Amino acid sequence: MMPSFSTMGLEHAIAGTSLYVVGPDDDVEDIKEAAMEDMRSVMSRIDRSGEGVYVQASTLGSLEALLEFLKTDEVRIPVSGIGIGPVHKKDVMKASVMLEKKKEYATILAFDVKVTQEARELADEAGVKIFMADIIYHLFDQFKAYIDNLKEEKKKEVAEEAVFPCVLKIVPNCVFNKKDPIVVGADVLEGIARVGTPICIPQREFIDIGRIASIENNHRPVDFAKKGQRVAIKIVGSNPEEQQKMFGRHFEIEDELVSKVSRRSIDILKANFRNDLSVEDWRLVVKLKTLFKIQ
């Protein structure tokens, strides 16, 4: 028969922690220190920046296993708070703090625990996501899919303001239309030319000539062209002043066409498109930042 215990305050004990019996000759403070050691190892893994997901597990051992997994180099998901046992409203309230700091971290990773109905309702109302699984890898897959989807949505939101760096050179005898819309053959000397990119001419006092409206590679429309490619581009003026710009009058064959970056567009690239640019592309961003005297 399994032994049973009856004592004051046992309902507050954390599942998975050691239970110590204090004898008449034991030092109570030493026992308390030993009891706290388990929790210290867990608490030390909470991100000190205060930003991260909220993690809930069934026992201390399960919590340690999940925290260990989340800090691995392949995963690297910061944790801002922890809990043991079923997910209650109070846990959702703690996780909701991230809504104002970093929305994507306003989530609870519930490992092998139940979620109360009240907690579900509050989470839906507050905008806190709860992911449940009894296998750690499944929990990670759910969260990763959620983050990837958020990133794609954010990219779409800021796509028009994201200016990728590029330097183009007009191909001789390939000026098909001199004035709005300007249509030329161009070599991509550096960076990535994308549809929607604002173009200016630094050698001509940085005059703006419009945005890339379309790109064709071997007579096929494409969304972008990279360094080393020769493409046909159509540039359309965004305002009356740009629409007046004309090849042969305002700029010549020797002038380079450069994407007009700004402080705002660079910040958007860093936040949302960092992995879409190569190391060489980022060097061009730095170069253009200096060219446009951006602080």
Automatic annotation (TrEMBL):
Residues 165-255 form the Elongation factor Tu-type domain. Residues 32-144 form the Translation initiation factor IF- domain. InterPro entries: EFTU-type (IPR029459), TIF_IF2 (IPR015760), TIF_IF2_dom3 (IPR023115), TIF_IF2_dom3_sf (IPR036925), Transl_B-barrel_sf (IPR009000). Keywords: GTP-binding, Nucleotide-binding. GO terms for biological process: translation. Transmembrane segments: none annotated. SUPFAM superfamilies: Initiation factor IF2/eIF5b, domain 3, Translation proteins. One of its GO terms (molecular function) is GTP binding. It comes from the Eukaryota. This is Uncharacterized protein. It comes from Capsicum annuum (Capsicum pepper).
